[in-house]
Amino acid sequence: MQSIHFLSGLPRSGSTLLAALLRQNPRFYANMSGPLAGMVNAMLGEMSGRNEFSVFITDQQRQRVLRGLFDSYYSDEFTADVVFDTSRIWCAKLPVLHTLFPGAKLIACVRHVSWIVDSVECAIRNNALRPSTIFSFQTGGTVYSRAEGIAHGEGMLGYAYNALKEAFYGEHAKHLMVLQYETLVRDPAGAMAAVYEFIGEPLFQHDFDNVRFEAEEFDERAGTPGLHTVGGKVQAQERATVLPPDIFRRFENDAFWLNAAANIRAVRVV
């Protein structure tokens, strides 16, 4: 199959924007989060000891089956030279990805955690008449229960945060690059140059004044129209937070990737 790399990291941190930029390059294919990571998880489970016939499955067969998922999904209609597959799950699957694709790189998008919680809350308030799949379409929550819901270990944010730390401190961290949302929106040219250098591809001249992406059907079904819409110029937008001060303060020191002394694997942080 084509050369493949992976986009992952924290929610509401620029992965859709990064994909929208990458797909400007006619040699690249990139998109929002897709189904492959879930399919890999499902197949790992089906080939595990919980299946009584797993005694007939070797690790070589497991590897071929999982590679086959990618080969089949990104088949002939995907003509790009380089594919970027996106999922927050990939940070927790770096050993699997390294086994399947030893040369693949993982770009993890991050953002100050308080602003991630703020961004999710804004998405909910902007669609006040539509309960969201983010909270299982529940209608009785508050900003406090919503913050707690996404931050716990299996929540939208908490899971991704823990998965990122696993990759950041893991044995395959040399295949990981952390891309800060703040860098991407304030210096998109510099951010993209770092991405191209990391994956070893020739630099492409992107149009940072006209970036477009939308997933209307997906966002409508999720109860959050506009959640993945990208349009216009890449730029930082300064505004006040919608969060109560105590919630904002709770998360404001969680950007562990900024602690150079704790970067024991020398992960590149852009």
Automatic annotation (TrEMBL):
Gene3D superfamilies for the chain: P-loop containing nucleotide triphosphate hydrolases
GO molecular function: transferase activity
Signal peptide: none
Top-rank taxon, per record: Bacteria
Entry keywords, A to Z: Transferase
Top EC class of this enzyme: transferase
E.C. number: 2.8.2.-
Protein's recorded name: Sulfotransferase family protein
The organism of origin for this protein: Dyella halodurans
Lineage: Bacteria, Pseudomonadati, Pseudomonadota, Gammaproteobacteria, Lysobacterales
